[in-house]
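@channel anyone free to eyeball this complex?
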Amino acid sequence: MFRNNYDNDSVTFSPQGRIFQVEYAAEAVKQGSVVVGITSKKHVVLVALKRNAEELSSYQKKIFAIDEHAGIAIAGLTSDARVLSNFMKQQCLGHRLTYGRDLPVRMLVDMIGAKAQQNTQQYGKRPYGVGLLIAGVDEQGPHLFEFQPSGMTEEMVAFAIGARSQMARTYLEKNLELFADCSREELIAHGLKALKESLVQDRELTIENTSVGVTGFSKADDGSTKVEQFKVFDGQEVNAWIEGVADDKEAPAAEGESMEVDG
Amino acid sequence: MDHRPQAWGRPRDDIYGAYDGSYLQTSGPKQSTQAPVVTGTSVVALKFKDGVVIAADNLASYGSLARFTNVKRLRVFLDSSVVGFGGDVSDMQYLDRHLNELAIDESYETTPSADHPSPGGTLNAANLHKYLQKLMYKRRNDFDPLWNQILVAGLDSGSKPFLASVDLRGTAFSSPSLASGFGAALAQPIMRKYAATEEDAARLSRDEAVQVVKECMKVLYYRDARSMDKYSIAVVTKDGVELKEDEQLEKQSWAFAERIRGYGTQTV
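replying in thread with the prediction:
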């Protein structure tokens, strides 16, 4: 029945030096559907695969705007993500009120990192069962961070978390050098391709199950750079992008080798 | 004359009456600052084409006594902004320590990059001013104000010159030229002759602005009895802050003093 004796709370080490509750929480992240994030020098995009509980229900949102300059993609327990999302929204708003600027992304990530770590060290608490990709821009440029239930946070060039995300990460690793100089559209295309890699057979990206979030810097009319507000794209808005990476479009490209052949 | 040690430093009873010991009560309701004690006088600042000039003298007065003559009232923040303090000096020192903490926290959040080679942080003068305004207003609402008027000089998020003021009530405002304390009456009219509007200020050169501010410091020394001829002056541009803390007022002319009537011993 029990896997072992040391997994009843998150404050007790196992003799091997592991904290099982934290590891189980990390498993919850792997149950969530896959989300991908990529940065270039100018933009950062989040791409997510949405799931519906049953054929008759709607699809669960995966990407959320936190503030004008930042957003998150979630994998794991949606209700836990809601708590973190609300916290992050409040911190961004509070910072805007006291300093009159966007909360720097690293500060934001450090805050949830510290918050989540407390849950792994206090009796009677449980870790958050959700992993996040945090995308945002600040004065130092675009950023992508990974967040894990352990409280670990790390800055990434590109990353994917969630079910079968290893396939997406392999794609990202293979194309890593290309991302820095990608345009906004190219970056989204890479995100969708990475997402496709992790799809189970016979599944496809549709306007129902695909979600895209973008922020970055854009040129204003007077030549100065301004922040492109973080926006989530769903439904018809993602149609053109999905068609852009459709299998038949991809066929002539050099990446044909990595494509699956229908049996 | 009472020569007993316990009477040393006390007002003489035969002249001022018995000492009012009620000021020394140790019980009773908690009282926060109700008046500044050691004070700095005016801070003056003026925007120009690509930055801001700010100056304040090096005096800390104890009432009318020129008590400390080497007190630096301009403070550099993150190599990119200057904060000038008028009013209570101990509250200034508290704010100085507080801003040190803020600068350290901010530096931790920034890693050096091509755009930001030094790990200084990205909190600009506009951000800092907003923060100080919230801080001052919070303290006023606690009925425990920080007894200062503060000028913040630097650049805003668009790298344009930024100059704004906040006082002990949390009142904040901005202008092409600003002066606190006595300077609001004496220096502002002079600076407004050169920079009445933002457009005027944008036409001022650095040397002109420095010259105007130095002239203001001189006029203040002539007429403000809590001022001194040793002062600090800083110029903030996008290249950073140039702060000089041991300046001496030059080319003083007290000829006008002879025409002053009604104060000294003369019988008109």
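from a first look: The longest strand of chain A covers residues 210-219.
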